[in-house]
Amino acid sequence: MHFTLRSVKLLLGLWIALNPAAAGFGQDPDGPKHIFVDALLDHLVGNWKLTGNVMGHAAEHSVAVEWVLNHQFLRVHEKDNAPATNDRVPYEAMILVGYDNTSDRYVAHWNDVFGGRFSETLGYGTRSGDEIRFVFEYPDGPFHTTFRWNPETQQWKWLMQQKTKSGQWTDFADFTLSRAAAK
Questions:
Q1: Which of 108, 100, 113, 117 is nearest to 160 (CA)?
Q2: Number of domains in the chain
Q3: Residue 148 has pLDDT above 60, yes or no
Q4: How far apart are CA 48 and CA 180, in angstroms?
Q5: Phi, psi of 13 (to 5 degrees)
Q6: Nearest 5°: CA angle at 116, between 174 and 75?
Q7: Lowest mean pLDDT: which of 30-34, 127-131, 159-163?
Q8: 21 & 80 share domain
Q9: pTM for this prediction
Q10: What is the 3-state secondary structure (H, E, C) of 36-81?
């Protein structure tokens, strides 16, 4: 009888290990078979003209957005339209927006011309209606980036705010994204 109980345990263990439905308790809710589907972010796919202000200066950028990496991330490629000068490097960023199903939150990998130090901090976002608010906890203080979709105008608003040393929130950048004219 001891031999039979051991055999049953072995067979049950093998069945659980080899049967994905029976082993569902061990499956990760993220991964290549669980693509990131988001109706709100689908509105961001395409080409955009970004206009607005950053740190009190007018800005005009081109933004190209597409789903990448097996539809796990939305890649946002933002590029300053102004040419480089001796004292100015045009801004450029590659932002990857994904979703962490385990933690039930958006994640943003923001990589730009400021290099590796500033790209170490991930942004974590939550959605409320037609907006996603990302929080970045940078070494020099917290930073918020809010993506807001306006279905009536078919435009996006991006508001970026930073917390000053005195604890006040100030606008860092305020942008509007409008569909770029077809080329």
A1: 108
A2: 2
A3: yes
A4: 5
A5: -60, -45
A6: 55
A7: 30-34
A8: no
A9: 0.81
A10: CCCHHHHCCCEEEEEEEEECCEEEEEEEEEEEECCCCEEEEEEEEC
